[in-house]
Design a protein that fits this description.
single chain, alpha+beta, six-stranded mixed beta sheet
Length: 153
């Protein structure tokens, strides 16, 4: 199995969106990109950890490619709003692709450039190497499946 890590606003809706893709084996929500060790949802929401809400996607490369996941990423949120998705505001809601290796970095940058050229939009998505990933609290995992509550843009 391969892994990809995306931040695209509130992780509940983003997780549900990726979970439904053929070839995605597992999804998990968490935090990445900040400077605080072992953050919690409360510390993330306070706004001083610089972590983003993210979705860790495990996928079977024989059924879905990394490029396909990145293409889905562009469609499941608004990559033109800095530190914001809909009514959610803060660095934890930023648009970000965290890459695990140089190939993911290259493919993410190429896709961002293609998407920007195609749409003529100013894409603010950050592309950074994964340095750490912290799993979110259990009540956030598969939240939409558990509650029927939906959030999304």
């Amino acid at each position: 199995m391969e892994k990809a890590l995306f931040g695209a606003g509130c992780f509940w809706g983003v997780e549900e969106s990726f979970r439904k893709l053929n070839g995605v084996v597992n999804t998990e929500v968490g935090y990445s990109g900040g400077h605080t060790m072992n953050p919690t949802y409360e510390t993330i929401c306070a706004g001083d950890t610089n972590h983003a809400e993210v979705v860790l996607v495990e996928y079977d490369e024989s059924n879905i490619s990394y490029e396909d996941l990145v293409e889905h990423f562009w469609k499941c949120h608004d990559p033109t709003t800095l530190n914001r998705q809909g009514p959610d505001i803060g660095t934890q809601y930023r648009s970000v692709i965290f890459y695990f290796n140089e190939n993911q970095k290259k493919l993410s940058l190429q896709s961002k450039n293609r998407y920007s050229e195609k749409t003529k939009l100013n894409i603010v998505t950050e592309i950074s190497q994964v340095k750490e990933y912290y799993k979110a609290e259990e009540y956030h995992q598969k939240y939409i499946q558990k509650t029927g509550t939906y959030c999304g843009i």
